[in-house]
Design goal:
about 170 residues, alpha/beta
Length: about 170
């Protein structure tokens, strides 16, 4: 974690900021990977200071070996971004990841992207573009705004009351 990031995290834990929080959404590439321990530590501190603070964790999705736009251009289809030969990470079984239990102990609601975007949790069925045809990824794992917006709408439709009382 960079010094700049450490400073932002310290500010997050300040009394003024803590008092203004209604909900915390934790989203990261490979959210349960061992390198995310510093973030889980911060979430733990937030929950210790305010046990009623809801934490929503957004699960992982897909990472590719090379930028998805390169795969799409070469294959002339976004389906190349979910081809097992090009995928280096697929979050089909988050419970097997190193920090899953630790993070889920702090989580009030889990957004399972695989359940939302992949029929029967199968890689080959995963949504890989937004309704307008925009590819899902800007690079190897960052979602395009259009795809992230689509996923958000799908999840809001599934859980319409999730944030209404917060």
């Amino acid at each position: 974690m960079t010094d700049d990031c450490k400073g932002r995290m310290a500010a997050l834990l300040s009394a003024d900021v803590m008092a203004s929080l209604d909900v915390v959404v934790y989203a990261a590439n490979k959210p349960f990977h061992a390198n995310k321990a510093p973030f889980i530590n911060i979430l733990s501190k937030l929950k210790a200071r305010n046990p009623a603070l809801p934490v929503i964790t957004i699960g992982g999705y897909i990472n590719t070996r090379t930028d998805c736009w390169r795969l799409t251009n070469a294959a002339r289809t976004t389906a190349a971004c979910r081809d097992p030969a090009n995928v280096t990470y697929f979050a089909v079984t988050p419970e097997t990841q190193p920090l899953y239990r630790d993070l889920m102990a702090l989580t009030d609601h889990f957004v399972d992207r695989i359940d939302l975007l992949c029929r029967d949790r199968q890689l080959q069925t995963c949504a890989i573009q937004a309704e307008d045809g925009t590819p899902a990824f800007l690079d190897r794992h960052h979602l395009s705004l259009e795809f992230a917006s689509m996923a958000g709408r799908l999840y809001a439709a599934r859980y319409p009351d999730l944030l209404k009382s917060r």
